[in-house]
Amino acid sequence: xxxxxxxxxxxxxxxxxxxxxHFAVTRDEWHFWSYERLAQLSLRAxxxxxxxxxxxxxxxxIIQRSSPGFTASMFGAFSAGVTACSIxxxxxxxxxxxxxRHVTHLLGVSRPDLVVCDADSADPVRxxxxxxxxxxxxxxxxxxxGAEPAAGPREPSGTVMLQFTSGSSGFSRGVPVSAGALxxxxxxxxxxxxxxxxxxxxxxxxxxxxxxLVGCLLNLVVTGADGYLLQPDDFIRSPLRYLTCISENKxxxxxxxxxxxxxxxxxxxxxxxxxxxxxxxxxxxxGAERIDSRVMRAFEELLGPHGLDPQSLLPSYGxxxxxxxxxxxxxxxxxxxxxxxxxxxASETAEAVxxxxxxxxxxxxxxxxxxxxxxxxQIGEITVTGPSVATGYVQASGESPSTxxxxxxxxTGDAAFLExxxxxxxGRLGDGLKVRGQMVFAESLELALAERGIPGxxxxxxxxxxxxxxxxxxxxxxxxEGWAAIASDVLGTALADAGLIAVNVPxxxxxxxxxxxxxxxxxxxxxxxxSLRGDPTPLPAPVAPSPADLRRIRETVPQ
Amino acid sequence: MSTPxxxxxxxxxxxxxxRHVIQLITPRQAGFVADEHDLVGDLGFDSLxxxxxxxxxxxxxxxxxxxxxxxxxxxxxxxxxxxxAAAIADGAGQRPSAEAIQALSAQYRRTWNPEKLxx
Lengths: 559, 119
Description:
A: nine-stranded mixed beta sheet
């Protein structure tokens, strides 16, 4: 079979009985649903949406775990011409108040005409829906009960999905994805990976973020290949189960963020791999956050003796605003690192991992602050055009965030340089850091500092990659006693292993706009140039209180 | 001939075992782990490592998953040890064997020192 462009609903017409999705259930069992069976369930969902009066222009919020029901809810929406919006159910250990706040924000932006849930996800959203004046959720089983499958799939047009960008509530924005954009991006990815229906894939990623939904689930189903799907919890509980599945089923394609590779390296010792083999893996796409060359090498060291081909590791770069994939390392190339040879100053010479070439139909340009293209080897902002780039956000926010969609161009707010045509991504330009694949915005940390008593106008937070390391910089205006400890706590908790730096500047030392907002990009440049009006000093990393501290706490705090 | 209880740790050792497991997984370098330590604030646990810890403790002590409401109340090391001790007393959990604790520790490239039980 050769790689070819495939319409989004062709898999339904083909209704394969010998291929489909294998869902991990219990600790060691798999539940197989053929594409024929999934097609029927999807057509029942499509009919059910229509029966409820949903049509073009309506939106269904799907709050379900990765499952046959989730798949049918999505493709049923595509077929019925209803926009689908995938929202995460609460994950294990998540605080109910935080979830309520987050889901209320997403539902408030998407304003769904229908909400479809699993049994577990229905109760946590009742309150948020009621507070927004929206109808209560419908369980998936209720939705399709008694529904006869629609006669056949309709190829979708218009807005097929609403994706949310990464970020905590209030910072996550809705991106409408057109049928053309989704089709173009899936085709481009299939072409990049030379993926056809005979090559099985695997994923543990959540289906509420672009990489897990578009990159994994939709790619698998639309391509018509066998797919092995685990929940994120399954992977966390037993990364060995994930690796064993790849070996036993000769899986060809996989994808995960950098922290997933790091987790495998942390949890699995060479003695645990036994007879497992990874020769079958043609591609392991690494994306969604900064790629750490040490993690990549440690992963190669662990699985190399078991047949992992280092050339199968494919660093990539993408964005929800561009549907998903923007650039990726071509097959059979081998990943590499490079330093920017036209670095403006000494602190920008650290190496970055190459994320390959723009995918088919996509143009990537690196520009300076004035929007002028910079030469190869010089760091600038990544801008993207192409058929998979969205035309705008659902609501124009009052802010002027670093990531913008204007006139068909995505200004990513990410810093990178080109070298020999390859894109080397460094990180953001001062406003955010990806932590465990999720965006943490500097502004959200400033709010957290304010809650702990540091006045908003006396502090600014900058987040980016400095000297090849994820870095958080706190700028204090006339620092007061206790502020460093608070900052260390807040940033240390939010930013995992990032380096933490404090800078104490005099009054007026924080650059702000006319409305008082921190000019983060300017200050980040000043930080890199060592021209902030104070000396950067390391913030002490937060440490667990010592026995002496705990005794003191016990004595001073009423029990 | 071994009795069913052979090799299981004593009930009084449970808190110490729980602290040992937390120390295996804690993201922040902690020379020791105390009941007062807040998992997130003091020990650096995040969403990934909290789930990892939950699964390790569920598997080791044969516990059911906690509800989100209950999970919200488990903030400190002491909350966790209390929860597990209560579950075992209620028969909703089991004392682990020394072998199981060593196997878990080995997964993290560490060993468990039973002599440290005398707190």
